[in-house]
Design brief:
The protein is of the alpha/beta class. The protein contains 17 helices and 23 strands. Helix 4 crosses helix 5 and helix 6 packs parallel to helix 7. The longest helix has 19 residues. It binds NADP nicotinamide-adenine-dinucleotide phosphate.
Length: 486
């Protein structure tokens, strides 16, 4: 049964001041699996964008002056409301992105927990006491800091996690007392609009959360350059992130970018567990995950066994229709993404690499692919593939695996499988990444751990409280106790 056809076509305007005004121009959204029209959204014009930013300035004034307990209560109510609508959100994600419905349900049931955490953190978001008399000359002074919000924050989000990526921006932004303007990916704006509508119905005041749909160039760019926007919180590709950082000037940026995630499997590891993780974290969401496994480095003594286990497990994956409850790997975001993947795999094969399974596409669906014998300069190794393709290579000495994993422009997260505590710590110290997972792959994440990358994987950290620190300023107050010093 093709569920996309029975999913009603959704028409939405921009979300501004808690309503959907009639848009002046529209964008069409298609399901990448079957090409069916899923909905239309607004393509914000310059005056419409101006209205959105103005609304966020006003929303900030209201929200930042509310007591923390009131903000926390509204965020909690919004989390409840999103949980109650989890199935609607999951269906919307699958309709517009083609993510397998099982994975969409995981995303829609897990994401509201980010808001819950933000509501809790909103009540303990305070500064420090500064010991002023630590050096001569500052006696009789009392110093403390306060955490103050910044203002409207532009939250520019990618297509691959239409709910989670949005909540990881707006939940900390709002918990810290800012207002937020979401510019969702053009491929997946319907989920962001649904989230905003549900949160508004749960009690979020007008203007605190607005959604500006439209293309990156015509809506995202002008939003970033608008001086009323006080911070740019971006998740997406390194190329766009670099561009936005230049546009942001002196304003703060948080950049969560891509990677070509590595996992090391040493010869003392639980090989069955490592192979299972390689397949799950390499191919889940069709590999369209910033912390997906792309490169697997295996100690030579156990290499053949790991490769065999990985290929066998890959061949058991169910690939195709995202509405089928049994599907493990659905389509990529577009037919163009599948064609780009094909060209990188073909280039590797032409250069001498072996494609052990997969290596083919059907429309936007790319078959889960395992490659061996690739050289470090091939795109399938050194660029972010963002598709269900992994390369498996062997090494002799553990340090060679660390060097190979570090031979990347990126550095988001890495995994290392070993039972040797010494090697685990060596990996933790030497891998140039934002997080190292021991006996797991790079894909592991919980919402409240610090999360972000080194090198071209980004600047700053998500993870509710860590993001709140970045989405606020420290204000210092020093009281001169001159009148009480006699
Ligand atoms: P993308 O092409 O960089 O787009 C991300 C967002 O930026 C979209 O909303 C896009 O709008 C917008 N945009 C594009 N050009 C812009 C411009 N000139 N000015 C302002 N905004 C602009 O990324 P994507 O293809 O959607 O997502 C995949 C990438 O995201 C991968 O590299 C992945 O690793 C990364 N990612 C990172 C994380 C993380 O936490 N580190 C998480 C998820 C994804 P349009 O859609 O309209 O172009």
């Amino acid at each position: 049964v093709n569920k996309t056809l029975s999913h009603p076509v959704i028409h939405r305007g921009l979300f501004v001041d808690g309503a959907f005004p009639e848009p002046s121009a529209t964008l069409k959204i298609y399901n990448p699996f079957d090409g069916q029209l899923v909905g239309t959204v607004a393509e914000a014009s310059p005056p419409e964008l101006d209205r959105i930013v103005e609304s966020s300035v006003n929303g900030f004034r209201t929200w930042s002056r509310m007591p923390a307990h009131a903000r926390a209560q509204i965020l909690m109510a919004a989390a409840d409301a999103l949980e109650a609508r989890a199935e609607d959100v999951a269906q919307t994600i699958t309709a517009e992105l083609g993510k397998p419905i099982r994975d969409s349900r995981l995303e829609s049931s897990r994401s509201p927990k980010v808001l819950r955490r933000a509501a809790e953190e909103a009540k303990r978001f305070h500064g420090d006491i500064v010991q002023m008399d630590a050096t001569p000359g500052a006696e009789n002074r009392f110093g403390f800091t306060m955490r103050v919000p910044l203002g409207p924050i532009a939250c520019i989000t990618p297509f691959n996690f239409p709910m989670s990526a949005v909540l990881h921006k707006i939940a900390p932004a709002l918990a810290a007392g800012n207002s937020a303007i979401v510019k969702p990916a053009s491929a997946t704006p319907l989920t962001a609009l649904l989230i905003a509508e549900v949160m508004h119905q749960a009690g979020l005041p007008d203007g605190v959360l607005n959604v500006a749909t439209g293309s990156g160039e015509t809506v995202g760019g002008p939003l970033v350059r608008d001086p009323r926007v006080r911070m740019v919180a971006f998740t997406g590709s390194a190329a766009v992130g670099m561009h936005l950082q230049a546009d942001a000037g002196f304003r703060r940026v948080q950049l969560e970018l891509g990677s070509n995630g590595a996992m090391i499997v040493h010869d003392d590891a639980d090989l069955a567990a490592a192979a299972t993780i390689a397949v799950r974290q390499g191919f889940n969401s069709a590999g369209q995950v910033c912390i997906a496994i792309q490169r697997v480095y295996v100690q030579r003594r156990v290499y053949d066994e790991v490769v065999e286990r990985v290929v066998t497990a890959t061949n058991k994956l169910k690939v195709g229709d995202p509405w089928d409850e049994a599907t493990d790997v659905g389509p990529l975001v577009s037919v163009a993404a599948a064609a780009r993947t094909q060209s990188w795999v073909d280039e590797a094969a032409a250069g001498g690499a072996q494609v052990l399974t997969g290596g083919t596409s059907d429309g936007a669906v790319y078959a889960p692919t395992v490659i061996v014998g690739a050289s470090p300069d091939m795109k399938v190794v050194c660029r972010e593939i963002f598709a269900p393709v992994i390369v498996v290579e062997s090494y002799d000495k553990f340090d060679q695996a660390l060097d190979a994993a570090n031979r990347s422009d990126y550095g988001l997260q890495a995994g290392v499988f070993t039972r040797d505590l010494y090697l685990a710590f060596r990996a933790a110290q030497r891998l140039d990444v934002g997080a190292v997972m021991v006996n797991d792959g790079p894909r592991f994440r919980v919402d409240y751990m610090p999360y972000g990358g080194m090198k071209m994987s980004g600047i700053g950290r998500e993870g509710v409280r860590y993001a709140m620190d970045e989405m606020s300023d420290v204000k210092t107050i020093v009281i001169n106790e001159v009148f009480s010093s006699d």
